[in-house]
Design a protein that fits this description.
Helix content: over 70%
CATH class of the largest domain: Mainly Alpha
CATH architecture of the largest domain: Up-down Bundle
Radius of gyration: 25 Å
Shape: globular
Largest sheet: none
CATH topology of the largest domain: Growth Hormone, Chain: A
Order of helices and strands: HHHHHHHHHHHHHHHHHHHH
Number of domains: 4
Strand content: under 5%
Distance between the termini: 16 Å
């Protein structure tokens, strides 16, 4: 059953979609837009580069804490009211971020942004699932996926433009008109079915009588420790740091204790019994594994373009735009194909296309041209569309309507943790592989080999011709050789990691055997979505 308006007529599904997409798009953009502005913010608030990164880290940790509690928030306050309150809080905290006068105030307001933004995305997903008719669930998730992927693509480019032409505070102030429009449209066009509201009120009353405070505490402490470890581990030399070791210990104790507590609680804060459904479990875990590779691959590509090829942050963002454009063109098509073709076929095709695009990146060098980068990322965009539209749809196919927000929050949490694990793994591997490649190249730069001696002699001659004395020319040529060696080692490390990412993506294919769907997964078999678990 679709949503019902106050006047009894079903609301326009596209107006509902546009209404709830405003907040989600802002939250998606704000997760990444700040990264390109950190150098300017650092000078404005008088912080070191290491300290100012907490403006980004605080946002991520806060959002991770709330994601699995989205269903609880929706039951206690209602989906529409929860969305409106969190959108208002997000818009207000965006305004405060733009007014921040020092680092503690900025981090505090960014935490408020993260707490409120975490509710917006799963709640939109739940509202869209309730709004679109059963035969159009694939299209609903296509629209949802388009909003989600637009943020990381638009964020860095938009942030770079604002920083280059305006004050950094405008990366937050631009949220104000969008937030106001979203509030107005959600209040006007989004309604909840009376029977669903009644079921949520009953669930909320039961939740209040049996509030699982200990489970919430264990989850919050465990997730905060885990996310801090993943965000800060690389910069603190991982387990050589007492703080990182302590976070790992706390997470390893609190998270299993939370699982045990939730399975025994009469009204758990997070409905882990959703994992009894093999369709939900396989879809959620498969998405986390794919995010482990894809998010890290995009980060590495952006880093490669800026650190090796010399792109500015704005140019790197523009280079990634064709991927988003390819996804936005393809996703509605994939949404229509869902239900007509087996989900496994669509996802397998997407994995192969994405893997091919990542493999092409493993052949990048200093001579790589823009068209080579664009070709590889367009393949990844097409593949990602084929992966996530059916995956987002099939994972929620058998989830009761009253548990859609719970399920969407858990899926979002698993993907965020998968992304953080992937980034931590690949960034650590980049450092290690670069050192290994530099050592291997250095073994060939010995005094008994004529090639490096001839190169040094040629370079030294060039410096002498420019007026340097013999000692200075010799020292400059050695520094240039060391820099060239490091650059080549970095390229080799990137190529090795891109190849590893492609192989890991291909390793996902056998996991599709565990993506268990039933004959009711198609659009003709979703009437059970309206049934309470």
């Amino acid at each position: 059953m679709s949503l019902t308006s106050v006047k009894g007529a079903p609301p326009d599904k596209w107006l509902v979609t546009l209404s709830v997409s405003c907040g989600t798009l802002m939250a998606s953009i704000d997760a990444s837009i700040i990264n390109v502005a950190l150098p300017q913010i650092r000078g404005a608030v008088g912080a070191t580069l290491q300290e100012v990164t907490w403006a980004s880290t605080g946002f991520i940790i806060a959002s991770v804490l709330v994601l699995p509690l989205t269903g609880l928030v929706g039951r206690l306050f209602g989906q529409k009211r929860a969305y409106l309150v969190c959108l208002a809080l997000f818009t207000g905290s965006s305004f405060l971020c733009g007014l921040a006068w020092n680092l503690p105030s900025l981090v505090c307001f960014r935490v408020l942004q993260g707490l409120s933004s975490a509710v917006l995305t799963p709640t939109e997903q739940a509202i869209l699932r309730r709004t679109f008719p059963p035969e159009e669930q694939g299209m609903a998730m296509a629209v949802f996926s388009m909003v989600i992927v637009a943020g990381p693509a638009v964020g860095p480019t938009l942030g770079g433009f604002i920083v280059d032409n305006l004050h950094w505070s405008w990366i937050f102030f631009i949220n104000l008109p969008v937030g106001a429009l979203g509030l107005l449209m959600v209040w006007r066009f989004v309604e909840e079915p009376p029977e669903l509201l009644a079921a949520e009120r009953a669930a909320a009353e039961r939740q209040r009588r049996n509030m699982d405070w200990s489970g919430i505490a264990l989850l919050s402490v465990g997730l905060a420790s885990l996310q801090y470890m993943l965000e800060e581990g690389q910069s603190r030399d991982w387990f050589d740091s007492p703080a990182i070791s302590a976070c790992a210990l706390v997470a390893s104790l609190c998270l299993p204790a939370f699982v045990l507590r939730s399975l025994r609680a009469p009204a758990p804060a997070v409905e882990l019994r959703l994992f009894r459904d093999p369709v939900f479990t396989s879809g959620a875990l498969l998405g986390a594994v794919i995010f482990f590779v894809l998010v890290a691959g995009l980060f590495l590509l952006s880093l490669f373009m800026q650190e090796v090829l010399g792109f500015t942050a704005t140019h790197a963002g523009l280079a990634l735009m064709p991927r988003t454009l390819a996804m936005m063109v393809t996703m509605p098509i994939v949404g229509r194909l869902y239900g007509r073709l087996p989900s496994r076929w669509l996802i397998a095709t997407g994995v192969l296309l994405t893997g091919l695009g990542v493999y092409l990146m493993s052949r990048f060098s200093l001579d790589t041209a823009m068209q080579d980068i664009v070709g590889s990322i367009i393949l990844q965009g097409l593949g990602t569309s084929l992966i996530f539209v059916p995956l987002n749809t099939v994972a929620l196919d058998h989830v009761p309507r009253s548990r859609l927000a719970d399920a969407a929050g858990v899926i979002g949490l698993l993907r965020q943790v998968g992304s953080s694990l992937g980034l931590a793994f690949f960034v650590s591997a980049l450092t290690r592989y670069t050192a290994q490649a530099r050592e291997a190249l250095g073994a060939h730069l010995t005094a008994d080999r004529p090639e490096p001696l001839a190169w040094l002699g040629q370079v030294r001659g060039g410096f002498l011709a420019r007026g340097l004395d013999e000692a200075s020319a010799h020292e400059a040529s050695l520094r240039l050789l060391a820099g060239t060696t490091l650059r080549q080692a970095t390229i080799l490390a990137f190529d090795r990691l891109f190849l590893l990412a492609a192989l890991l993506l291909l390793g996902v294919l056998p996991l599709l055997l565990f993506l268990r769907t039933s004959p009711r997964s198609g659009p003709r078999g979703r009437a059970h979505l309206d049934v309470e678990a």
